[in-house]
């Protein structure tokens, strides 16, 4: 219990950094109007953020591996606070793009180090719970941060959101400075060694499942607020309610996905989740003008979309149990790259086809993820069969 409150502080900060990442989709129409760009152009703020997170985080983590963990965490948090300051001071789109880059790298490094610190200060045997608590804070950003941000932006100014995040982060930084003990860095793992896992076909194919899953999801989620306002015709208040329901469903889906991996098996849970995810996006497109159908479809979409996350992580860890940290880090980068590409494709769809079309294009993106999923499970089956044959041959020899 002695250090549990420190872990909760880390969870609160992870909520703040998570909100800075996710909230932009909830207020995209307001941001676009304020900085004088199209909604499609504003959507590229998510692309820039995701690319910076995916590329910048592993590089900085590798270069700062020997650095004291508390010092690195506070440095990342200082960078994050600076990113919020630039955001509220922005006078144009280019400046806002720069702010998103700063926020992304600060968030990425903070989350990696916060999870490490949480595990170190946790009581023996409670490391898993400590990590889960910090991640819960990040996930709550989708449930509470995004709809709350939409409400605040509707009544005041969207920049108020980032001002508040910056102030609370500054307070948290002082608390962490006074309470988190210094701890030595870790043995650095070169980027080349991290990327060497990609040479294993089964791992590279397995990682691509997450790429297509999040790509299809992001194509429509990037433009979810304009979609609900323009296509469905919801009010600002109903958009906020819809985003809150969406977040609740994502948390439930994540929990069921983890349960399903254990209860029904990884292949069945993942294939089923991807099929339902894609199918519901098609239904959402077909019934997008009927508000009475949109809210339940949004919740089902979120539920099945986020059920894939924990299944994917368990599957990847099983492929490389001796390098779980590296493979999960690679997965995070791949997910962020998928988000970046998804936002780009979504912007192209909005500009060249229609806003409504992001639904069925997203469905296609998710459906493509079924190809590497089936291929990967097939490769896993052949690997298991091969191991069984070798075991049988060895037993025969003896």
Topology readout:
Elements: H1 4-26, H2 28-35, H3 39-42, H4 44-63, H5 69-89, H6 93-121, H7 127-155, H8 158-179, H9 191-195, H10 201-221, H11 224-232, H12 236-263, H13 266-286, H14 291-306, H15 308-319, H16 324-352, H17 358-368, H18 370-397
Describe the structure.
The protein is an all-alpha fold. It has two domains: 1-188, Growth Hormone, Chain: A (Up-down Bundle), CATH 1.20.1250; 190-386, Growth Hormone, Chain: A (Up-down Bundle), CATH 1.20.1250. Helices cover 84% and strands 0% of the residues. The protein is built from 18 helices and no strands. The protein has helices spanning 4-26, 28-35, 39-42, 44-63, 69-89, 93-121, 127-155, 158-179, 191-195, 201-221, 224-232, 236-263, 266-286, 291-306, 308-319, 324-352, 358-368, 370-397.
The total domain count is 2
Unreliable segments of 5+ consecutive residues: 384-398
**Tally of DSSP β-strands:** 0
Average pLDDT figure = 85
Beta strand %: under 5%
- Kindly report the CATH topology of the largest domain: Growth Hormone, Chain: A
Number of helices: 18
- Based on the coordinates given, report the CATH architecture of the largest domain: Up-down Bundle
Radius of gyration: 21 Å
Instruction: Tell me the name of the CATH homologous superfamily of the largest domain.
Output: MFS general substrate transporter like domains
The quaternary structure here is single chain
- Look at the structure and give the CATH class of the largest domain: Mainly Alpha
Shape: globular
Question: SS-based structural class?
Answer: mainly alpha
Write down the secondary-structure element order.
HHHHHHHHHHHHHHHHHH
